[in-house]
Amino acid sequence: MAIHKRFRRSNNKTHDAAQPVFSFPADPNLAQVIVDAWLNTNFPWTPSGGGAVQNVPLRDALLDRNNKGNPTKKAFEVATQRIRQALNVDLKRAVVITEDEHDNDYFLDEDEVVFVLPDLGRLSPTPNPGNPSANLLATAKLLMACTPNGI
Domain residues of the chain, as ranges? Predict the structure, then answer.
């Protein structure tokens, strides 16, 4: 179980190597990305090819896959834009994957930074009705400390 990257050795044969995996400190802005994805809130995505801003359901867009199960251009663009926004960083290309994709040895492309979205099944089916948003944020922060259970 890992994230892998393909590389070419001097004999010109392709091999793969597991990439380092780490957890980012429980930054509230990054934890909010998890909460927004869990709640599938709308995100104002600007397509790279131009055109009008589109409000897309965040989780659906982050986990958009083609017929081979690979992230689509939309998934990469939404992930990159949302992570840049949350952390004020300048990543070239981000992608959000599921825990299942992580556990089944996700292969990343050049310049990708991979984030793992915690499974919705880890959430209590009955969150605290007094303040469910705060509970979700605290839960996201906790799961961020668990690899691969958090972005």
Answer: 3-8+21-144
Q: Are 28 and 13 in contact (CB under 8 A)?
A: no
CA 147-18-24 angle, 5° bins:
30
Whether the Cβ atoms of residue 136 and residue 14 lie closer than 8 Å to each other:
no
- What is the pTM for the complete model shown? 0.79
| Residue predicted with more confidence, 129 or 116 | 116
H helix intervals, 50-114: 58-62, 73-87, 99-103
Q: How far apart are CA 63 and CA 76, in angstroms?
A: 9
Instruction: Quote the pLDDT of residue 51.
Output: 85
Which of 23-26's residues contact partners 24+ apart within 8 Å by CB, and which partners? 23/144, 23/145, 23/146, 23/147, 23/150, 24/144, 24/151, 25/144, 26/141, 26/142, 26/144, 26/145
Please state which of the ranges 5-14, 27-36, 83-92 shows the lowest mean pLDDT.
Answer: 5-14
